Amino acid sequence: MFGEIRGYNRQANKIIIEFERRNASIEIVTPSIINFFASIASERRVSKAVENLRVDPGAVSVDRVDGKIVVKTEKLKIAVSDEFFVDIYDAAGNLLCADYRGSAEPFVRRGSGEGLDVAAEEGHKLELEKNRLKVRVLKKMDEELFFYGLGDKTGHLNKKGYHYKMWNTDNPDPHVESFEAMYKSIPFFITLKKKQAFGLFFDNTFESVFDLGKENSNYYSFGAVDGNLNYYFIYGPAVKEVVNGYTYLTGTTPLPQLWTLGYQQCRWSYTPEERLHEIAAAFREKDIPCDVLYLDIDYMDGYRVFTWDKKKFPDPKKTLKELKDQGYKVVTIIDPGVKKDRGYPIYDQGLKNRYFATEKDGVPYVNRVWPGDSLYPDFPNGEVRKWWAANQKIMTDTGVAGIWNDMNEPASFNGPLPDDVAFNNDGVPADHREMHNVYGHYMSKATYEGIKQATGKRPFVITRACYAGTQKYSTVWTGDNQSLWEHLRMSLPMLMNLGLSGVTFCGTDVGGFGFDCTAELLSRWVQVGAFTPLFRNHSSIFTRDQEPWAFDKETEAINRKYIKLRYKLLPYLYDIMHEEESNGLPVIRLLLLHYQNDDKTYEINDEFLCGENILVAPIVEQGDKARMVYLPEGDAWIDYWTKQTFEGGQYTIKEAPLDICPIYIKAGSIVPLYPVQNYVGENPVKQLTLDIYLPEKGKIGSYVHYQDDGESFDYRKGAYNLYAFDVQADEPAKRIRIKGEKKHAGYGKGYTSFKFILNNVEPSAIIAGETSVSFEVSGNRTVFSVQEPGDIIVRL
Ligand code: MIG
């Protein structure tokens, strides 16, 4: 395709390589992030995922050595040979990633000829991918490689040996391991070989495929049906650094409003308004915290977006105000499909201004979704996004607190959109093949910007479809799962891989969307949901009730217990989200993110870390009342329930009756806690609790806590507080020192006292500054409070 190297020239951080048949380029973004590019389909080069790229290449050298072009950065050496074959080495000269030189040789699919037609009639498909891809990169496989990422694909954590497709797909069948495409397309994966990890981000919005050693175990590959060769190599060597690099390119999730981390209750549908009020009252009556209620499609007038059904909601503004007074934020669904209906303003405006995608001859394209015949706003067009953004005000003025974008793959009832449906794409014509995977991305972007303009607060948007980079605008859920144990089990690797793919703020429909939930399944799912950033219970229209109290008193109490635990942990989750805004590290983490040296963590699908300090090993099998837990090596772990300490690097059996979800806290953790409230903002939080788990001898436990007003963008102007805490046991353990310091004071309504919980410590005296402090001991906990965080000595 490229031929022999003819020469090169360097332009700042870019090296253009001239080959016999076409040019290619290498761009040094940072010493660890390299872009490889060749135009195949067009010269045009606009990324949908990477905005405002910050280039910081450091020192770069380029030489011609033995017929190769050798580029060196401060971290990597890249050797380019004829045919644009690329080999990448670390600074010490270890080969990290080599292009595969052989030809692609898919494994043989036996069964051909006569039997085929009959087999196809029974539904057995033969999938041939031969020559469909215009762009393709093959990399040499290594036996010791593990693969992660690719968004929320089904199956297990490690993607080695599987094949996936990026083509946003709404398929309501139960999601199983053989699903190649899901609602989201995040063409990014991480490869790990012991201590060395790197990521590959294939920034191409066309239908693309990722084959991680399935078709041939000698190589792994990615490619697309059209578009350009355009991918980034993102070096680690830590997986953490790869995630950091990927979000450097595609962006991080901005800090959300605090209430969005509260419990959320959804249903298709809470209508009419009496039903919504009933649900709202039930949470308060039953003493189960809840912040958010959702309105699904039935609140609209004939599914016309930005309207209300006046029979079901005669005065939506009043209804939302009443709910607001009880502490509820209401989120409404908005689908992309605009009903074809003269006299309906959204349709009329869209038609008049040519805001809808068209057939190739320019006639507005019509398909069918909920409202019947509908048109698709041309979201890739900035003008259309402005219009859509302005429409958000219709909802926020009514009192809506957030917007839920569904069906934006885009879904269609009357067959898929034809390839040639035309989009304007900011002045550049593009067809559906190119725009499909970014349709939801641009819809959420418009929604985010609209809510921001209308309210000035941090927008809450939740979307089903997305592309790389959507995390800048929206939280996501994994779509229509079902109330199946299999789906609870699979939600863990899905969310862990989503987190590695830049999507921090995510969750699954707790309890399962389709099919009928059971009491036991709901409680086990709530136990997981309590730790996922988006904690939303949702179920489909024909399924049985699934609210936390929908089954029996026993499970209602269990659900209450875990939803309350969630509310205690709110400052901890908020701290992770705050850190994430600068480092891109997700809330739900694979164990290996912090324990890459411990290869026993590489394929643990049924445990996760919530931030760095909390390990959750939920029960995901019906009837299980105990499970094996692996505690990673390098830290000691404290059982949250019994406070028993375990060395890391071992398997242990934890008994877990239905009210127990196995939770372990890393030794040395300082976990910030809030008092449980019915909803965020019910009472101002004046006291911060710090739940302390002593570090192992010789180690220091430290933690930084962040506080702000929980809703505005003022924190970007410095209106926040930062508190740093350290805890250390003196050697030999005669006393414990706790140090607290306010590192940044920019938010006036700070805490007026600090409560410390010391686990597994029996003090003889506690001295803060010069004065002794009274304390209470109950069981293995010692509790005391001080007004200012300062130097505290705990004598044993
Ligand atoms: O075709 O709005 O995934 O959460 O409840 C179904 C109705 C359309 C699919 C979403 C689901 C939502 C449902 N929607």
Task: Describe the structure in your own words.
The mean pLDDT is 96. By secondary structure, the chain is an alpha+beta fold. 51% of the residues are buried. A hairpin with a 3-residue loop joins strand 35 and strand 36. The radius of gyration is 27 Å and the shape is globular. Bound molecules: ligand MIG. The site of ligand MIG has 11 residues, from loops.
* Low-pLDDT segments, ≥5 res: none
Largest sheet: 9 strands, parallel
Mean pLDDT: 96
- The residue fraction in helices comes out at 10-25%
Tally of separate domains: 4
CATH topology name of the largest domain = TIM Barrel
Q: What strand line-up does the widest sheet have?
A: 31-30-28-25-21-20-19-33-32
CATH architecture of the largest domain: Alpha-Beta Barrel
Give the CA-based shape.
globular
Distance between the termini: 73 Å
- Small ligands present: ligand MIG
Q: What is the CATH superfamily of the largest domain?
A: Glycosidases
- Strand tally is 52
Radius of gyration over alpha carbons?
27 Å
Instruction: Report the CATH C-level class of the largest domain.
Output: Alpha Beta
Backbone structural class: alpha+beta
Strand residue content = 25-35%
> So how many helices?
12
